[in-house]
Design a protein that fits this description.
Number of strands: 3
Strand content: 5-15%
Radius of gyration: 31 Å
Number of helices: 9
Helix content: 25-40%
Largest sheet: 3 strands, mixed
Distance between the termini: 50 Å
Shape: rod-shaped
Strand order of the largest sheet: 1-2-3
Length: about 260
């Protein structure tokens, strides 16, 4: 509060006595200096509660507001965070989404991918063990099993038992933009008509039975989608949030 604003709150007799060089005037100057830090905080108080604007030391406190403090799980206040501050900010920013889908495969995979920054988590329910879920961790997150276990225990339904295992066989899918073969250089191209002619007769040899085409499954989702029955969630962060399953799919209803 400025000195002039404080002075207007005083009785008229005090206002006349608070002239330049007076004791009351000096006291008002001191009061203005003492109020300045608090005024600066109140002028930008909304930044304390914004996930991407709050200071680094305040992010862990905000996880309590969105019920994600189990991710921190620090035994001491001075203990380092188990994940980078940027990923912790993403968890706070998506706290409402994670609370809505808690107890579903979508919510568990989203929380795991936000916390670890890795994709490829597979959730399986063995046919011989109902109400039991096996979470297969990709190699990119195999060194953070303690963090993954805490998130799985908090995001699973209460009546479900879980088992967290690493899956070294999971390999990243080929990227068509980077794994495509490079076109030949201009000097390596053969002029038309100089190469070997391509065969034009595609008929099978006489007496040989025609090979049956391999059966294809149009509904398969790849090595992970076929095991879980749901599409894998793409990595999410500040720039993009994956859309949840449509309401007409009862497989992942929020609990």
């Amino acid at each position: 509060m400025r000195r002039a604003a404080i002075e207007r709150l005083l009785p008229a007799a005090y206002q006349r006595a608070a002239g330049p060089g007076s004791v009351l005037g000096a006291l008002l100057d001191v009061m203005e200096a003492l109020h300045a830090p608090d005024e600066a905080v109140l002028a930008d108080v909304d930044a304390l509660f914004a996930p991407y604007r709050t200071p680094d030391g305040f992010v862990a406190y905000l996880t309590r507001w969105v019920a994600m403090d189990h991710v921190v799980a620090a035994p001491r206040a001075d203990a380092p965070l188990p994940l980078p501050v940027g990923r912790l900010r993403d968890l706070v920013a998506h706290g409402a989404l994670l609370a809505r889908w808690r107890g579903t495969p979508y919510g568990m995979r989203t929380a795991l991918e936000l916390a670890t920054g890795a994709t490829g988590f597979v959730l399986e329910e063995p046919a011989d063990r109902p109400f039991h879920v096996v979470v297969r961790v990709p190699p990119a997150a195999a060194d953070r099993l303690a963090l993954v276990t805490r998130i799985v225990e908090a995001e699973k339904p209460a009546a479900v038992t879980v088992e967290v295992t690493t899956d070294p066989a999971v390999a990243p899918a080929p990227n068509p933009t980077t794994d495509a073969p490079e076109p030949p250089a201009a000097g390596d191209q053969e002029p038309p008509g100089t190469g070997d002619p391509e065969p034009t007769d595609d008929r099978e040899p006489t007496g040989a039975p025609a090979a049956d085409p391999e059966p294809t499954d149009a509904g398969a989702d790849g090595p992970e989608g076929a095991a879980t029955g749901v599409a894998s969630v793409r990595a999410v962060g500040r720039a993009h949030v994956p859309s949840p399953a449509p309401p007409d799919q009862p497989s992942e209803e929020p609990s």
